[in-house]
Structures are given as C-alpha cells and as structure tokens.
Amino acid sequence: MTAEQLRSLIAAGLPCEHLDVSGDGRHWYATVVSPAFEGKRPVQRHQMVYATLGQRLHTDEVHALSMKTLTPAEWRAQAESARG
C-alpha cells in the first residue's frame, strides 16, 4: 500500500476538506479534516476513518494507522493558534 492509495481510500469514503497521509508502507499517520466529524466523539471519528479501509486493517495491508481527526472549524482554530 502506498500513501496515495491510502489517501484515495479515505477520500473515497469521507468528504475531506484536508487529508494528509504519510508513513513507511506499514505504519501510517493521517490528518483528516471532515465536516462529517461534526458532533462526533474522537472514537467515532476514528471508526469512520477505519470504515473507509474495510478489510485492509484485518489483513495487515495497513498494519498501523495513527490519526488526527478534526472538523473544519477545529482545523481553522488550530491553524490560527499556530500562527499566533
């Protein structure tokens, strides 16, 4: 699995305003910004991302995925606080 393939799977299953995926082929990190996360707890957001990957997590095609899941408003607030 490549970063672009993983990115495409997530984007196909969730409307994303921002999506960044990096990793080494087995261990991945994703930042996912989606309006679909509004009103959802972090665990629910992660479950939504995992659902886009289907069986790939169970077959070890994606061994590990760490993620930051944000709503568009949270993303903007984070960017503003980083600017300072």
Automatic annotation (TrEMBL):
One GO process term, biological-process aspect: DNA-templated transcription
* Cellular component, GO annotation: cytosol
Q: Which domain of life is it from?
A: Bacteria
* InterPro entries, per database record: BolA, BolA-like_sf, BolA/IbaG_stress_morph_reg
Question: What Pfam families does this protein's entry cite?
Answer: BolA
- Which SUPFAM superfamilies does the UniProt entry name for this protein? BolA-like
Give the UniProt family note: Belongs to the BolA/IbaG family.
Question: PANTHER family annotated for this entry?
Answer: BOLA TRANSCRIPTION REGULATOR, BOLA-LIKE PROTEIN 1
Record protein name field: Acid stress protein IbaG
> What is the native source organism of this protein?
Tepidimonas aquatica
